């Protein structure tokens, strides 16, 4: 990169080179601030996906840096783009490291685990520097080969690095509850009557780099109703049936992934809903989904029609009542087994969209963050 700026050349201008370097670093740090501020809760709710996707970004950024000597006239553009990617990756690494270290600190020895992680990092950094120095010494007599060597070894080391990170993240078993993890736990408990361990949930959850978990039939979403679909028969009837003591309600909805329409169950939380209400609501939503799949009921059965004494609407409310009774009957046993299995059940981590709540004001329903 110094060579790309002209350092070492007889006609290079130190002030111009320094200015380019400062601009590169400054823009990279600014992007890091923007990234960390905008992502927020995703560091907790989608930790593995954020960590691995930013690792890919880091490897690509190094590749862009290696291209700067070939295109010195575009140094500032290429170096800035690479530094932005590396800054974002560093921010994600720092934000997710504590949670990953905590998952390995079985004996509450978080400091020891963090120290060993730093030792591993330093050892491999030094090994990389030593390897680079040896390769440069071996290729010292052939300048053209020395210049092309980084591009030759880059794909190999980048592939090995990402493979190691991917398999490392698969070994991370987080005990905190998110919507996705809690949904996996409840589905397993409904089907088999037992609480899966963090390792079992981790294998089912995966890293989900391409966000494929939402593709299942009747996916469950925590958040607000889509205004475009809130006028359906079930939505109108559900909103009319709300009582002042209700801390959540469950409704049907639909969303679009590209051109594909997706059926979903929407869990809307009230502003005063606690962690126990989130668990009960998601437990009820999972039972509703199980019933809809068993009876082979689709969204088209409820999306249109008159809400007055419609048999389809009666069936929907019967399913809701059955699921609510089932949830309240088994929730104490489920919660006790959840804690006994080692899960941190005192809080459910939600993304920014999942944190949207509704409140009752003058008998009107409003949604607010």
TrEMBL record:
Superkingdom of the organism of origin: Eukaryota
Domain Protein root UVB sensitive/RUS, chain residue ranges per copy: 1-191
Record domain Root UVB sensitive protein C-terminal: where: 259-353
Q: Which family, according to the similarity comment?
A: Belongs to the RUS1 family.
Q: What is this protein called?
A: Protein root UVB sensitive 4 isoform X2
Q: Which organism is it from?
A: Ananas comosus
Upper lineage: Eukaryota, Viridiplantae, Streptophyta, Embryophyta, Tracheophyta
């Amino acid at each position: 990169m110094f060579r790309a700026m002209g350092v070492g050349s007889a006609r290079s201008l130190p002030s111009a080179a320094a200015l380019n370097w400062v601009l590169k670093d400054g823009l990279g740090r600014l992007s890091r601030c923007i990234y960390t501020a905008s992502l927020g809760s995703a560091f907790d709710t989608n930790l593995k996906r954020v960590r691995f996707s930013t690792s890919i970004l880091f490897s690509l950024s190094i590749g862009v840096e290696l291209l700067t000597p070939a295109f010195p006239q575009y140094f500032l553009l290429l170096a800035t783009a690479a530094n932005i990617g590396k800054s974002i990756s560093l921010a994600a690494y720092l934000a997710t490291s504590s949670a990953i270290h905590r998952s390995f600190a079985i004996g509450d020895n978080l400091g020891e685990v963090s120290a060993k992680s730093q030792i591993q990092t330093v050892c491999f950094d030094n090994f990389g520097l030593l390897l680079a120095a040896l390769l440069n010494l071996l290729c010292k007599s052939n300048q053209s080969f020395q210049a092309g060597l980084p591009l030759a070894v880059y794909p190999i080391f980048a592939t090995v690095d990402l493979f190691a990170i991917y398999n490392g993240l698969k070994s991370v078993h987080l005990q905190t509850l998110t919507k996705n993890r809690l949904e996996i736990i409840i589905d397993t408990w409904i089907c088999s009557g037992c609480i899966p361990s963090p390792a079992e949930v981790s294998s089912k959850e995966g890293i989900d780099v391409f966000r494929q978990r939402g593709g299942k039939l009747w996916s469950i979403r925590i958040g607000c109703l889509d205004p475009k679909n809130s006028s359906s028969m079930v939505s109108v009837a559900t909103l009319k049936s709300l009582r002042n003591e209700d801390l959540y309600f469950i409704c049907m909805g639909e969303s679009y992934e590209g051109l594909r329409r997706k059926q979903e169950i929407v869990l809307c939380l009230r502003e005063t809903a606690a962690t126990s209400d989130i668990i009960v609501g998601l437990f009820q939503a999972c039972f509703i989904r199980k019933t809809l799949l068993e009876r082979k009921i689709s969204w088209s059965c409820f999306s249109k029609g008159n809400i007055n004494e419609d048999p389809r609407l009666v069936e929907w409310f019967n399913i809701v009542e059955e699921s609510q009774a089932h949830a309240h009957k088994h929730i104490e046993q489920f919660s006790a087994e959840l804690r006994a299995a080692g899960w941190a059940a005192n809080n459910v981590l939600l993304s920014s969209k999942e944190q949207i709540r509704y409140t009752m004001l003058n008998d009107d329903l409003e949604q607010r963050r």
